[in-house]
Design brief:
Blueprint: E1 15-26, E2 29-40, E3 44-56, E4 61-72, H1 76-80, E5 91-103, E6 108-119
Antiparallel strand pairs: 1-2, 2-3, 3-4, 4-5, 5-6
């Protein structure tokens, strides 16, 4: 194919995260709660969370849900490549999910509905 010359400058960014998750169980109820603290050199600090309750109806059936937030910084390529856009903003989202699950000996089936609200998505 011949020689390839990249116009992408060597670029770096600092990103650090801390994540914690707790699981609570009582009777047929389960609850998982978690959070993440993101510290991004360019886009600042953001905290995201997740909350995931579920209830076991019986041996085979379970209902569940989830509420979560998200944060995603643009990649270096999206910002600085020849096709990049240096003015991109970080993507933020809220996610909602609910469903019911059946688990049998030979099959498992889940019916899930979800809604996602994204700001600054690409």
């Amino acid at each position: 194919f011949g020689p390839f010359v990249s116009t992408f400058e060597d670029t770096s960014v600092y990103l650090a995260s801390f994540y914690n998750s707790l699981l609570f169980e009582k009777g047929n109820w389960n609850m998982e709660a978690g959070f993440r603290l993101n510290s991004h050199e360019t886009f600042g600090s953001y905290t995201t969370f997740t909350l995931n309750p579920s209830y076991k109806i019986n041996r085979h059936w379970r209902v569940y849900g989830s509420i979560a937030s998200g944060f995603k910084a643009p990649s270096l390529y999206q910002l600085y490549s020849f096709a990049g856009t240096p003015t991109l903003k970080a993507e933020k989202s809220y996610n909602y999910e609910a469903g019911i699950a059946y688990t049998g000996k030979q099959a498992s089936v889940r019916l899930t509905g979800f809604y996602r609200d994204i700001k600054n998505g690409l």
